[in-house]
Specification:
alpha/beta, Aspartate Aminotransferase, domain 2, Aspartate Aminotransferase, domain 1, 2 domains, 7-stranded mixed sheet, 3-stranded antiparallel sheet, binds pyridoxal-5'-phosphate
Length: 356
């Protein structure tokens, strides 16, 4: 068994892997694999319905919102959200908190919009979240990235906005409670905290659908998928199925409320070690630290190879930092247990006992 700190695709509960593997051979006693069964079969239609209902249950999605599974990842979500939110002004406000926000801004341009970067943390290599941002009232929408997977920052409080809010929640959805009513579009690639790559989750306020000022290609119109219950075309069957299994598992274990506590415990354990260990330091502003992706560097790289060998020998994988930050990144998605974080902390301590 490995301790998977990889940034994505994400670790999933072992039970989910096991159930999913059984369904690959024989899906719910149908004698067919989940990989070959018709997406129009009553068995799969039930999976799609349950997946949507579990999303609503897990996040307390209020009336007037729909849940849909699309494809193309969050990367296509950048374009889809811009096209669907574009109104007469075509101006859109973006807060730039790193690589993914930048890509979102570019897709707004590709959609024919005029993105305005109203705040950025680019002056400090995105190691903090801009605060007290004035959101202009004359833009069609505000776009934010809730958790910055690469740089290790996370909104603890979302900005106040009088205009509709679009949020890329790819890397922290289902990790903590959110108030869905504060958002008009939430989107997330499944593979960061929900399930296998392939599906992109959209949670949309019904009111915003069908009001775009641009001509949206059929597939990119969220309304297409809401109207057809995510069955407009062949959905990413396996990704939706395993996401459904994972949501069942999440809810059976106390839901988002329970996992949020565990995620906080994991983050406290690792950040406390980073702060007290003389050989390591965090890369981000303390108040903006992500509970999902913990970025840190060595204060002295003399014995780096030895440290890398130690965590490798302890069964840890996926700890290498993104090239734009360097150092290390410990991604601690829902399915990573507290015991895995303890293994990492023990290695860090053993290392500093030797070399500090
Ligand atoms: C990974 C990631 C993306 C890109 O997701 P894809 O599904 O690979 O397109 C976008 N935004 C955030 C915050 C991410 O972590």
């Amino acid at each position: 068994m490995k301790h998977n700190f990889g940034a994505g695709p994400c670790i999933l509960p072992q039970e989910v892997f096991k159930e999913a593997s059984e369904a690959v051979v024989n899906f719910e006693g149908t004698g067919l694999s989940i990989l070959e069964i018709s997406h129009r079969s009553k068995e799969f239609v039930a999976v799609m319905e349950e997946a949507q209902n579990l999303v609503k249950k897990a996040l307390n999605v209020p009336e007037g919102y729909s849940v849909a599974f699309l494809q193309g990842g969050a990367s296509l979500g950048f374009l889809i959200s811009a096209m669907n939110m574009m109104r007469d002004s075509k101006k859109a406000a973006y807060i730039n908190t790193g690589a993914w926000s930048k890509k979102a801004i570019k897709e707004c341009e590709n959609a024919g919009g005029a993105p305005i970067e109203i705040a950025s943390s680019g002056d400090k290599n995105f190691n903090y979240i801009p605060k007290n941002v004035e959101v202009p009232g004359d833009c069609d929408y505000l776009h934010i990235t809730s958790n910055n997977t690469i740089f290790g920052t996370q909104y603890k409080e979302f900005p106040k906005s009088s205009i509709p809010v679009v949020c890329d929640m790819s890397s922290d959805i289902f990790s903590r409670k959110i108030n869905v009513a504060d958002f008009d579009i939430i989107y997330a690639g499944a593979q960061k905290n929900l399930g296998p790559a392939g599906a992109t989750l959209f949670i949309v306020k019904d009111e915003i659908l069908g009001k775009s000022s641009v001509n949206i290609p059929t597939y990119l119109n969220i309304k297409t998928h809401v109207d057809k219950d995510s069955m407009f075309n062949t959905p990413p069957v396996f990704s939706v199925y395993v996401s459904m299994l994972n949501l069942r598992h999440l809810i059976a274990n106390g839901g988002v409320e329970a996992i949020e506590k565990v995620n906080q415990e994991k983050a406290d354990l690792l950040y406390n070690e980073i702060d007290s260990n003389p050989l390591f330091e965090g890369t981000t502003a303390k108040e903006d630290r992500s509970n999902m992706n913990v970025t840190f560097v060595m204060t002295d790289e003399t014995h780096k190879e030895e440290f890398d060998k130690m965590w490798n020998d302890a069964g840890i994988v996926g700890l290498k930092g993104h090239r734009s930050v360097g150092g290390y990144r410990a991604s601690m998605y829902n399915a990573l247990g507290l015991e895995s974080v303890q293994v990492l902390v023990d290695v860090m301590r053993e290392f500093s006992n030797k070399y500090a």
